[in-house]
Design a protein that fits this description.
Shape: globular
Number of helices: 4
Oligomer: single chain
Number of domains: 1
Order of helices and strands: HHEEHH
Strand order of the largest sheet: 1-2
Structural class: mainly alpha
Radius of gyration: 18 Å
Number of strands: 2
Strand content: 5-15%
């Protein structure tokens, strides 16, 4: 691989994930403005982890409704198609945000953060 190709791939990688992070941040800010900080504070670390595992990841698991063959997960064409469904992507974005919320809670930052008013 030529150096210019490697640089382009690096830039594509960085640009793609910057876009994903920006999208996740937009979703987090939008939902935070809808629900407020109290719902997360009331749940605490254990509650947020439970929501992440029980709610969000169960939606993803349902999309991955494959089978196990010789110790490996085998996904059907139908299961792979379900991964493209917008609700699966939404659940994955929510899961990413819940992970970041957990970090803020664990570090004791969640309660001290204020959401700027949207214009």
């Amino acid at each position: 691989m030529k150096r210019t190709q490697k640089i382009q791939k690096t830039q594509d990688f960085e640009k793609y994930f910057a876009q994903l992070y920006a999208e996740a941040q937009g979703i987090l800010v939008e939902r935070q403005s809808q629900y407020g900080a109290n719902n997360i504070e009331a749940l605490g670390v254990a509650g947020v982890f439970s929501r992440l595992n029980d709610d969000k990841m169960n939606r993803v698991r349902k999309s991955l409704n494959g089978s196990v063959f010789k110790g490996r997960t085998v996904l059907s064409e139908e299961s792979l198609a379900d991964l493209q469904h917008p609700s699966t992507r939404d659940a994955l974005m929510d899961a990413a945000n819940y992970c970041l919320i957990l970090i803020a809670l664990i570090e004791g930052r969640w309660s001290s953060l204020e959401l700027k008013e949207r214009r």
